[in-house]
Specification:
globular; 7 helices; 197 residues; alpha/beta; six-stranded mixed beta sheet; 14% strand; 50% helix
Length: 197
C-alpha cells in the first residue's frame, strides 16, 4: 500500500464516493444524499420531541463518537452524549463483561424513539453489536457506521446502516467522521428547509 499523500487523497475520495446506505432487512442501497437527509430528518424529529442521542464506539471510533457528540450538541442543539465515562464504563465491563458494557448502560438509559449511533470500523466488535441490538429492543432508531467486509455483522443490525468499502482504518474512521460532520453541518439554520418538510 502506497502512503503517497496525493494518491491517498484520491483513494479516500473513491471510498467516500462508494459509501453505501442500506436499510435493515434490505439487500438494496438507497442513494447517499437521500440517506443523509433521512438521518437529518430523524435527528430533527428527536430534537423536537426532546429525545436523546447516544453515540458509541471503541478506540478510534470512540474518538469519532466524541467529536460527533460535540458537533451535534453544539451545532444541531441535540441532546447528544457518549457513554465513555471511564468509571462507569469500567464498572459495567468488570461486572458484566466488556462485550455487554455499553448495552447494559443503554438498556438502562434508552427510551422509545431515542437514537443510537453505533460506530465500528470492522463491524465485528461484540460490544457494539450488543449496543445495536439493545437499541432496537428498546425501540430506539439505530444507525450503524462500519467498514471492512460488506457482510460484517454490525451492518445487519441498524435501522439504517452506513458502510464504507475499505479495510484501511484511517479511511474508515475519517470517513465516518466526515459523514457525521456533514450531517451536523446541515443543521445550520439556512439548511433546515432541506429536510424539515
Amino acid at each position: 500500500m502506497s502512503l503517497d499523500f496525493s494518491l491517498r487523497v484520491g483513494q479516500f475520495s473513491d471510498v467516500l464516493l462508494a459509501t453505501e446506505f442500506r436499510p435493515i432487512n434490505s439487500t438494496s442501497n438507497i442513494e447517499v444524499e437521500s440517506g443523509v437527509l433521512a438521518i437529518c430528518k430523524k435527528l430533527l424529529e428527536a430534537r423536537n420531541a426532546n429525545k436523546n442521542i447516544y453515540i458509541v464506539g471503541n478506540g478510534g471510533s470512540a474518538g469519532v463518537a466524541a467529536h460527533a457528540v460535540t458537533d451535534l450538541f453544539n451545532v444541531a442543539k441535540l441532546k447528544a452524549t457518549t457513554l465513555h465515562e471511564s468509571s462507569l464504563l469500567t464498572c459495567m465491563a468488570n461486572d458484566f463483561g466488556y462485550e455487554n458494557a455499553v448495552a447494559r448502560m443503554l438498556g438502562q438509559l434508552l427510551n422509545r424513539a431515542d437514537i443510537v449511533i453505533v460506530i465500528s470500523s470492522s463491524g465485528n466488535s461484540m460490544n457494539m453489536r450488543n449496543a445495536a441490538n439493545i437499541g432496537r429492543q428498546k425501540g430506539a432508531f439505530v444507525l450503524t457506521l462500519s467498514g471492512f467486509k460488506a457482510d460484517n455483522p454490525l451492518r445487519q443490525l441498524g435501522d439504517l446502516n452506513i458502510w464504507l468499502p475499505s479495510t484501511d482504518y484511517g479511511f474508515v474512521e475519517i470517513g465516518h467522521q466526515f459523514i457525521l460532520h456533514n450531517i451536523a453541518d446541515r443543521f445550520n439554520s439556512s439548511l433546515l428547509g432541506e429536510f424539515s418538510g
